[in-house]
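We emphasize that the prediction below concerns an isolated chain of 129 residues; any contacts that depend on oligomerization or on bound cofactors are therefore not represented. The input was used exactly as deposited, without trimming of termini.
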Amino acid sequence: MNSRLAFRVEGMTCASCVARVERVLNKLPGVEEATVNLAAEKASVIVDESGPGAGALFEAVERVADDIKLCAPLAVQAIKQIVYTGRNLPVEYSQKLSGPISQRISTTEDSIEGPKAFSEKRKPQWKMK
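Result of the prediction step, given as a token string:
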């Protein structure tokens, strides 16, 4: 018999976060269907009797959050600014909006640190500069 588990997922800012959380939850053994609602900040998961419990689902979502937190803070801020400002604009205007923001990010110390840390196989040390 299937059961539905619902829980809050706070802090998501875009459809990419939603898709990532859904993808991770849907890959768990015993999960029949997982959906995440960005506006309501809720996840709904249908699991079969062999499926994971609430604790395992929470752990999976926390792993996704930890991965996202590893991203460059300035880049995440820029993405949020583009999404919030451009969400009600036609696509061509949103794309024009992203140009100056991307240019500003590409001249930061963090834009150098990310690829450098990757090539050195270490975690980046973000400076927010």
